[in-house]
Design goal:
By secondary structure, the chain is of the alpha+beta class. About 40% of the residues lie in helices and about 15% in strands. The protein has six helices and five strands. The radius of gyration is 15 Å and the shape is globular.
Length: about 150
């Protein structure tokens, strides 16, 4: 079973709200970046990334199963729950070899310029600092290359 695509809505946040509804999910990875407005999303996007305590019925939802949400740093917007900026960035850095890197790099670039050309407010975990240091210059120069 598939959910609707983002093309049916005026914005990805509205699409995510409609799809998630009252489900016991926390949006993560690219979907969290969209909620945080650090990544605009893809045209007619259909994939949604969530943390869930059990597998769901939707084929186009990437379920990352966790025992509980207790160890996640979570933000809220109406009925949406999604990981905070630092949580999302760390999660994606930890999963770097299996993610689409464009949303992460674009989000880091947007974060950098929205925060006075600084990453100082981000909390990067020690196990992710090497990866972060390898891509932060790429993020800073991202819009020069687009």
């Amino acid at each position: 079973m598939n959910t609707e695509t983002s093309g049916s809505f005026r914005g990805n946040k509205l699409w995510l709200q409609a799809v998630v509804g009252d489900k016991d999910w926390v949006l993560c990875h690219t979907s969290a970046l969209e909620c945080l407005e650090l990544f605009v999303g893809y045209l007619n996007e259909e994939r949604i990334d969530v943390y869930a305590t059990e597998l769901g019925e939707y084929e186009n939802v990437n379920y990352r199963i966790v025992e509980s949400f207790d160890n996640l740093s979570i933000a809220r917007f109406h009925n949406l729950r999604y990981t905070t900026v630092s949580q999302t960035i760390n999660d994606m850095l930890a999963d770097f070899d299996s993610i689409d890197e464009q949303p992460l790099v674009e989000a880091l670039s947007n974060y950098y310029f929205m925060n006075g050309q600084s990453f100082d407010s981000l909390t990067i975990l020690p196990e992710n600092i090497d990866r972060f240091n390898k891509i932060k210059d790429w993020a800073i120069e991202y819009y020069d290359e687009v």
